[in-house]
Amino acid sequence: MSGAGGRGCGSPVPQRAPWSLVAATAAFCLVSATSVWTAGAEPMSREEKQKLGNQVLEMFDHAYGNYMEHAYPADELMPLTCRGRVRGQEPSRGDVDDALGKFSLTLIDSLDTLVVLNKTKEFEDAVRKVLKDVNLDNDVVVSVFETNIRVLGGLLGGHSLAIMLKEKGEYMQWYNDELLQMAKQLGYKLLPAFNTTSGLPYPRINLKFGIRKPEARTGTETDTCTACAGTLILEFAALSRFTGATIFEEYARKALDFLWEKRQRSSNLVGVTINIHTGDWVRKDSGVGAGIDSYYEYLLKAYVLLGDDSFLERFNTHYDAIMRYISQPPLLLDVHIHKPMLNARTWMDALLAFFPGLQVLKGDIRPAIETHEMLYQVIKKHNFLPEAFTTDFRVHWAQHPLRPEFAESTYFLYKATGDPYYLEVGKTLIENLNKYARVPCGFAAMKDVRTGSHEDRMDSFFLAEMFKYLYLLFADKEDIIFDIEDYIFTTEAHLLPLWLSTTNQSIAKKNTTSEYTELDDSNFDWTCPNTQILFPNDPLYAQSIREPLKNVVDKSCPRGIIRVREESFRSGAKPPLRARDFMATNPEHLEILKKMGVSLIHLKDGRVQLVQHAIQAASSIDAEDGLRFMQEMIELSSQQQKEQQLPPRAVQIVSHPFFGRVVLTAGPAQFGLDLSKHKETRGFVASSKPYNGCSELTNPEAVMGKIALIQRGQCMFAEKARNIQNAGAIGGIVIDDNEGSSSDTAPLFQMAGDGKDTDDIKIPMLFLFSKEGSIILDAVREYEEVEVLLSDKAKDRAILKDPEMENEEQSSPENDSQNQSAEQVSSSSQEVDSVDQESSEENSLNSYPESLSPADMDNAASISASEQTSNPTENHETTNLNGECTDLDNQLQEQSETEEDSNPNVSWGKKVQPIDSILADWNEDIEAFEMMEKDEL
Ligand code: DMJ
Q1: What is the pLDDT of residue 641?
Q2: Coil, helix or strand at residue 666
Q3: Domain match, 712 and 769 both
Q4: Average pLDDT over residues 261-290
Q5: What's the number of domains the chain is made of?
Q6: What confidence category does residue 916 fall into, taking pLDDT thresholds of 50, 70 and 90?
Q7: 340 and 370 housed in the same domain
């Protein structure tokens, strides 16, 4: 067997059904990897694995049981308020709500998890419920992508395992393909979305009215994400092959063909967003995370499931490009499709954590181990993977909606290496979920990994994916009632049987085009995991790859745009100036700016603006450095703006039955005790009278020594604080009077003072939106005595139970890691502070990080591009501040794209970009940055 020499996974002859080889090899590798293990991390005992497996089962019961009891038939559970999330009845959360179609989403998404977790009886009940209760004909606009992966995938996964169970002869004997019929009904409902000339689907559809009809309220969209259009083939092909209705697979193939056609021909990368009518790339940045992720996943898995070589060829072509441009081990960084040597961001999103798992399927284990290790260190620092984190591993977006991608990669890496290290990783994930996300009514998403505060949200993918991967990680073959190797996981971890490859193949035959070049062996390098080759006699292989990365997160220096021209280093030239290092008082730096064509303009209001005139740069290389410098500056500026916002605070309910499990996101006050500098305040709550706290309290005895609850409105926050302080309160929580408001949907703010000196206010004051506030008020109604902790960061539950123990336990390793992360947050903001301080103390020139707004940078960009476009040879001294350059810029940009497209031999690795192409991309880059900031994951 040879991954390099043969086609598919080691067969010397092309096979029509490579899946069987993949499955067989994967299974073989697993056995061999685990059995040859002799050294490295201590193997985990069978008992401990079983214990952890049982823990996963218990956690699933807690999540699923609470959903069924308190939320079903709603789409999702709201674990803090312990009720169902019904679309239209809660404030809109924007695009995230497009997954909700009033079709009991969580139940459908959980179906095949029940079978994997050996809950066959519950599965049988769940299927009956779906058949009885679920309506797919609701007048609601849903995401085509989410409905496909979660609902169609859920029904098909359920069907796949229902027929498996029926065949076994004990369960599901009554089953007659009813789930499949529902899946088909849903499939037909999604088809109108494909009514575009390109064949790319509209991003949304109305389940009842389809698209375009006035009642549909959708169909005017022009763009979709690449993953949205490219993540259909597994479910649609399975539907076609199960039912014989070929249309589904045909449509999904057509969309994939179109995306492939539109790939950027010189880099072989795809952008994040595409126009569904014209096929133009709307966002030209490219990575393996949000917006693109599962497009790549489905190309490889379509090859595995359908045995169609063209998918493998496409995947391998993209994979080469990813490894050449995006993979910067251990990082995976977005680049521009036309300028793939140019990083498009200095941060990574959490969705890319699936990629090491995909690399395992591809058989490229080394980078998978490296990236996974880096991600694990980020997790160890913040307990969860924040939605986005910077290249120096600081939090960029602090939420974490209990995403499963990292658990998925951990599972696949364990399968490929047999290294017990990955079992320990899984154990940490379980511990963190129980410690920080578990609440009395399920598991709550993290609103902010830094404070430990929660969001009233438990997404269906948590049940569809997280529990499957965690359970499988610890399970032995005999713990699962069927052979998992006979199935492939969809992106939502739904199981589709590999035998579909040989069923109803007519569509595949019809679509086999001659477009593909004759494939040679190089197209099939490492197409599946093969531990025989990867770990010949070296069970320490994975450990040896991880070792150098051990402290990559802790020891990391701030990194901006990290890719630096290799040739500069080789020739001994100094690395380019980084925005972070820049000091306007340093004459050497000013000289470098000049060389890069960047000038400083003093604005009348005292601010300073940076403008790059690429044409004034000393050379094209300096111009390129200048471009990078400006990009870094934009990011630095927006990062600093974020860091300057006061971080949220936490209100943690510590009394029975919450015991610290519910953490609410609270806004700070500009006055009173600063909880980030002082120890937290703990006390029982009491409502003030009058409730608005706007006059002397009439119930001082009730609030004395307690934390007063006060309603927002009718007087200044500071006045309320003084009144409760005078009554003897030790703290205050102001609860919003706007009913339904929530930190999920409204931005947090700081409570301002009253314009007078507020030094007399000594107690801590926090603000809760109405929804979070009512969680406390409800608790008071139910339990009367409710104790809370006001702090900057949720505290470990173990110490909360008994305040006496708090001091002792604060030095425990667990708390050390918490303290460490708190330190990290403050030390990184200190870094920024010191830059700022230095600058503002010296003179106004140095104050740019605060005074230079991204909008200023946009202007600067337009100016420079405009100049270049209107007369590329002239060195302009006057500037057009209105930047009337868009059309010309676009022309230039298009021209540059066409040239690049028609020249597939361009080697980005070596080429120095010509100035006009840098300028042509300038506006595009700025737009991309703006969009990325707005981007929803
Ligand atoms: C899941 O719904 C799927 O895995 C999807 O491909 C992207 N990520 C979410 C969970 O994070």
Answers
A1: 62
A2: strand
A3: yes
A4: 97
A5: 3
A6: very low
A7: yes
What pLDDT band is residue 539 in, cutting at 50, 70 and 90?
A: low
Mean pLDDT estimate for the chain: 79
Q: Comparing 143 with 752, which gets the higher pLDDT?
A: 143
- Give a yes or no: residue 39 inside a domain: no
Please check whether residue 671 is in contact with residue 721, taking contact to mean a CB–CB distance below 8 angstroms: yes
Cα distance between residue 563 and residue 576, in whole Å = 10
Catalytic member of 387, 635, 744, 806: 387
Confidence of residue 598 (pLDDT cuts 50, 70, 90): confident
Q: What is the pLDDT of residue 895?
A: 33
Q: Is the pLDDT of residue 63 over 70?
A: yes
- The CA 622 to ligand 1 mean position distance, Å, reads 41
Q: Is residue 327 domain-shared with residue 408, that is, in the same domain?
A: yes
Helical H segments across 852-910, by residue range: 854-870, 886-901
Taking the mean position of all CA atoms in its chain, how far away is CA 169? 42
Q: Whose CA is nearest to atom 11 of ligand 1?
A: 403
Active site residue 405: yes
What's residue 644's pLDDT? 54
Rounded to whole angstroms, how far apart are CA atoms 356 and 358?
Answer: 5
- 492 CB within 6 A, ligand 1: yes
293 has catalytic annotation: yes
- Could you list the residue range(s) of the whole structural domain that residue 390 is in? 46-500
Is 146 catalytic? The answer is yes
Number of Cα atoms under 13 Å in the Cβ half of residue 878? 2
Which residue bears the tokens 């409760």?
724
pLDDT at site 150: 98
From 105, 108, 144, 149, mutation site for ligand 1 pocket: most ligand atoms within 8 A of C-beta: 149
Q: Say if residue 593 is in the same domain as residue 663.
A: no
Mutate-to-test residue for ligand 1 from 400, 405, 463, highest number of ligand atoms within 8 A of CB: 405
Residue positions forming the annotated binding site for Ca(2+): 491
Confidence band, pLDDT 50/70/90 cuts, at residue 738: confident
Global pTM reads 0.72
Atom of ligand 1 nearest to the CA of 150: 2
Assign residue 757 the CATH number of its domain. Answer: 3.50.30.30
| Average pLDDT value for residue range 502-508 | 72
Q: What pLDDT sits at residue 543?
A: 85
Do 601 and 738 lie in one domain? The reply is no
What is the Cα–Cα distance from 499 to 305, expressed in whole angstroms? Answer: 8
pLDDT digits (tens, 9 = 90+) for 819-856: 333 333 222 222 222 222 223 222 222 222 222 222 22
Q: Is 215 an annotated catalytic residue?
A: no
Q: Is cis: bond before 18, omega within 30 of 0?
A: no
Residue 262 located in a structural domain: yes
Residue 206 identity:
N
Q: How far is the CA of 494 from the centre of ligand 1 (A)?
A: 11
Annotated catalytic residue, options 293, 309, 772, 867: 293
What's the CATH number where 446 sits?
Answer: 1.50.10.10
Q: Tokens 């008082």 map to which residue?
A: 585
Q: How far apart are CA 573 and CA 53, in angstroms?
A: 55
Pick from 152, 177, 181: nearest CA to 166: 177
Q: How many CB atoms are closer than 10 A to CB 534?
A: 20
* H or E element in which residue 184 lies: helix 178-190
> Is the backbone peptide bond immediately before 657 cis, with ω within 30 degrees of 0?
yes
**663 and 629 assigned to the same domain:** no
Tell which atom from ligand 1 comes closest to the C-alpha of 294: 6
Annotated binding site, which residues?
491
Same domain, 208 and 338: yes
Report the pLDDT value the prediction gives residue 592, as an integer from 0 to 100.
87
What three-state secondary structure class fits 316? helix
Smallest CA-to-CA distance from 632 within 585, 587, 575 is with 575
Is the shortest distance between the CB of 457 and ligand 1 below 6 Å? no
**pLDDT of amino acid 744:** 78
Nearest CA to ligand 1 atom 6: 491
CB 2 within 8 A of CB 9: no
Q: Is residue 123 very low, low, confident or very high in pLDDT (cuts 50, 70, 90)?
A: very high
> Of 625, 643, 661, which one is at a domain's C-terminal end?
643
